[in-house]
Amino acid sequence: MPPPTELAEALGAIVGPEHVRVAQGQLTAYACDATPLFHAVPDAVVFPGSSEEVAAILRYATGHGIPVVPRGAGSNLCAGTVPLHGGIVLVLTRLQRILEVSPEELLARVQTGVTTHQLADAAAHAGLLYVPDPGSRTVSTIGGNIATCAGGLRGLKYGVTRNYVLGLEAVLPTGEIIRTGGRLWKDVAGYDLTRLLTGSEGTLAVITEATVALLPKPADSGTGVAYFPSLADASRAVAAVIASGIVPATLEFLDRKCIAAVEQYAGLGLRLDAGALLLFGDDGDPAVVSANLDRIQEVCQAAGALEVTLAEDVARADALLAARRCSLPALSRLGALTVLEDATVPRHRLAEMVDRIDEIAARYRLRIATFGHAGDGNLHPTCVLDPGDGEAVDRAHQAFAEIFAAAIALDGTITGEHGVGAAKLPYLADRIGTDQVALLRRIKQAFDPAGILNPGKLGS
């Protein structure tokens, strides 16, 4: 590693001294992301303003064997942007231009420092919809969404980020700037590097621009909420809704502990005597939306719902959606440390998985509440504890290891949308096997022969 002064001068020569940080106080802000319990201070932070500057930084880093950690807003929940081995944190938030929105081609081109919310707004102004809708959408960047293949509340009906990435501009660790894919839905020329880079978590290349697909904005939407005595009852309702031929745009759940926390936090008038809440919604043609919501209401009632209510207007619909979106901040108020994880199981095993989580939480004497995407079986078990209680933190690590093992045993996975990063790396071989881990390492070696990009993560 070059001395700090030499490193600052070299990076400043590329991006300008005003876009380099090496003072200890400045570096501390980039020693962590939104993942608790992971912390490592980088040697420098640099803010490139173009793909060419990114390429020059990576060539310099490769030549000197300096680790580089690409970063957007740092909102990820798998310690994917923590600089475990020091080096350079490469912050891409200056790449914030929306280059094009094309209603004729139903696509947009953006630099990857654009936030999800900014792209969604630009699409909406053109009468279009950018589908991916992660909970962090107001701050998370498109580059981060692509790097982790982010999900969101619309995943059941519309899919996740990878379903909307048509092409990428990316910079290899050795400095070459490549373009994968393009503006077409149909393009099978060569290996699908676009799909490979989507979800690669900053370990193979630095994504600097994306071409993404848009959809026509739905003509109407509606939302409802159903309360159930237990999550098992709600789970049966989810299965019955899908079996009826309806694929809702939204199908989310909160367990009893989440309902209480959200109501205390937001005062939305939620029922506190329910064991589970099921938030459902649909969008599209007004007549179809109305018919689907009525049918979902009937199915929930038949499955034993305590109460089913359809939102009478947009304001109430937004309030119901807010109940789901504010689950994390509501739970965070209950303790100084909040550990939010994700695991996914087949939707018919959702209630079984929540029961396993509750049993594990009780055995380890932890407070764990669960919410998530009922339609695709993606759960977010969230543990609230005191960070000063080292013994409790150790118990939490052991509990989540058992939770991930339980998800795998139920034909599920260790992460549905947050990514692997450093937090899930110890469990990756259990999920995909040692032969596939070895293959990931060979792919990593082909892209990054010096091993500088995000070491300690995928492919390490």
Supply the key terms.
eight-stranded antiparallel sheet; alpha+beta; 21% strand; 19 strands; five-stranded antiparallel sheet; 460 residues
Q: Name the overall outline.
A: globular
| Tally of alpha and pi helices | 16
Distance between the termini: 20 Å
**Contiguous runs where pLDDT drops below 50 for at least 5 residues:** none
> Quick check: average pLDDT?
93
How many DSSP E strands?
A: 19
Structural class: alpha+beta
Provide the helix percentage: 25-40%
The share of residues in extended strands comes to: 15-25%
Biggest sheet layout: 8 strands, antiparallel
Estimated radius of gyration: 22 Å
Textual characterization of the structure:
- The protein has helices spanning about 5-15, 25-30, 50-65, 115-125, 140-150, 155-160, 195, 230-245, 255-265, 285-300, 315-325, 325-330, 350-365, 390-410, 425-430, 435-445, and strands spanning about 20, 45, 70, 90, 100, 105-110, 130, 165-170, 175-180, 205-215, 215, 220-230, 250-255, 275-285, 305-310, 335-340, 345, 365-375, 380-385.
- About 35% of the residues lie in helices and about 20% in strands.
- It contains 16 helices and 19 strands.
- Helix 1 packs antiparallel against helix 3 (about 50-65), helix 8 (about 230-245) packs across helix 10 and helix 13 runs antiparallel to helix 14.
- With about 450 residues, it is an alpha+beta fold.
- The model has no long low-confidence stretch (mean pLDDT about 95).
- The strands form four sheets. Strands 12, 13, 14, 15, 16, 17, 18 and 19 form an eight-stranded antiparallel beta sheet that branches.
